[in-house]
Design brief:
With 156 residues, the protein is of the alpha+beta class. The chain is built from four helices and seven strands; from the N terminus they run βαααββββββα.
């Protein structure tokens, strides 16, 4: 069933979110287990700077994984909001020409009226038919918002 052109719909990658959450949880668990497994005299040899460095490394990796997990595309009455990691781009419906998921490409792309291409990392090839269905639905919505030809029908 197709969403109406004005219904708000949000798409998120499944595989990337699962990997990001699993990797983040695993990394925290492994680092905590390694710290707990160290003998107290070995832990005491760590300087404050070394401990802070390890914690900053952990935080940096978790921030990258968070960026992957928060990737999404939202379509509503105002247009399409694309969030790739920590960057966002809002497209009005009139700016979006089409969306495609090219064979072999990692994610979908939106061609815009100004000739630029916008990556849509929320719709990833790795998600298979789920992503292809979302691309088809967004394409229908883009087509539904297409501006009428100002010159009218030239064939009739």
């Amino acid at each position: 069933m197709s969403a109406s052109p004005d219904a708000a719909t949000t798409y998120r990658p499944l595989g990337a979110r699962v990997v990001a959450v699993a990797a983040g949880a695993s990394l925290v668990a492994i680092m905590a287990a390694l710290w707990a497994a160290m003998a107290p005299d070995v832990r005491a040899q760590f300087t404050v700077l070394q401990t802070v460095t390890l914690l900053l490394f952990l935080a940096g990796v978790l921030v990258v994984l968070l960026g992957i997990a928060r990737t999404q595309v939202r379509a509503d009455v105002t247009g399409i909001l694309i969030r790739n990691g920590f960057r966002q781009r809002q497209l009005d419906w009139s700016e979006a020409v089409t969306i495609s998921l090219p064979r072999g490409a990692p994610w979908a792309v939106i061609d815009t009226a100004d000739g630029s291409v916008v990556a849509v990392m929320a719709l990833q090839s790795a998600d298979g038919s789920r992503a292809r269905g979302a691309v088809a639905e967004l394409r229908r919505r883009i087509d539904a918002h297409e501006a009428p030809d100002p010159h009218g029908d030239l064939n009739g």
